[in-house]
Amino acid sequence: MFGSGGSPAPLAAVHALGVVVVVGGVSWAAIGLVRGVRPGHPLPIDPTEEWRLDDLLVLAFLADLVVFVVFTTGNDSNYSRYLTAGVVFGSVLAGRALGQMLETVKTSWIRRATGVLGLGVLAAFAIGIGFNLTSALPTAPYEALDQFLEAHHLDRGIGDYWSALITTVATSGSVAVRPVVADPVNHLVRYERQSSATWYEGQSFQFLVYDTALPWGGVASASAVATFGPVARTYSVGAYRVLVWGHLLSVSANARI
């Protein structure tokens, strides 16, 4: 999901220019919004009222930042997906800002140079997409985990969010893994986002699984032992760890962190 997608470093570096342009476009529109709401400042005389669209895009961009801050509960890079909408809104603002700036430029060579630069950046992005599409497919380490769990008749478990999600989906629910997260005292409790209380209420679980290559939510051996006691058996399946106890596990449906 993350990384260069197989693109060479020079092509990937071009994205830094895109970030600068997006930040500049958002800043330009935000300054216009602040100026427009100042006390005593008259509404802009613009028969097209394009400023309304700019203001809405700025507010939408800021709203996405709020979503990112609220839903990001750790340092996991996967949380950057919450910035997708903001990048889209910022890109639109950047394009509008560049268009308006070029309208004020009268020097022909500057306009031509800007056009050539823009085409070069777009070409770099297009070539990068080509590398993404033609690069080798990423390995699917969860397939070995699914096969291991099914072979050992472990079909009801708990685990970190990503391990729980991919295992349940990839096995079409034949192995149901429910997400848990560590609370402030390092005990594993129900992960309440995108989960149902019925997944936990009155249910017992055979194992816990977590991914050592992608730590998430404090789900690890230490929090598992602190919650359920000493582990009877630990299996290593690639980067995954499957922990089994001499007793079934239970997780409160109403646990909160």
What do these coordinates show?
The structure is a single chain. The chain has 257 residues and is α/β, with parallel strands linked by helices. The protein folds into 2 domains: 9-134, no CATH class; 142-249, no CATH class. The chain is 49% helix and 14% strand. It has a 6-stranded mixed β-sheet with strand order 3-2-1-4-6-5. Helix 1 crosses helix 2 (50-71).
Write the layout of secondary structure elements.
Elements: H1 9-37, H2 50-71, H3 84-104, H4 108-134, H5 142-151, E1 156-159, H6 161-170, E2 176-182, E3 188-190, E4 205-211, H7 221-228, E5 233-237, E6 240-249
Parallel strand pairs: 1-2, 1-4
Antiparallel strand pairs: 2-3, 4-6, 5-6
Helix pairs in contact: 1-2, 1-3, 1-4, 2-3, 5-6
Task: Give descriptors for this structure.
single chain; about 260 residues; alpha/beta; 6-stranded mixed β-sheet
Number of strands: 6
Question: Biggest sheet, in brief?
Answer: 6 strands, mixed
Helix content: 40-55%
Determine the number of helices (DSSP H or I, runs of at least 4 residues).
7
Shape: elongated
What's the N-to-C terminus distance?
29 Å
Structural class: alpha/beta
Estimate what percentage of residues fall within beta strands: 5-15%
* Number of structural domains: 2
What integer is the average pLDDT? 82
The unreliable regions are none
Instruction: Report the order of strands and helices.
Output: HHHHHEHEEEHEE
Q: What radius of gyration results from the CA coordinates?
A: 25 Å
If strands are numbered along the chain, what order do they take across the biggest sheet?
A: 3-2-1-4-6-5
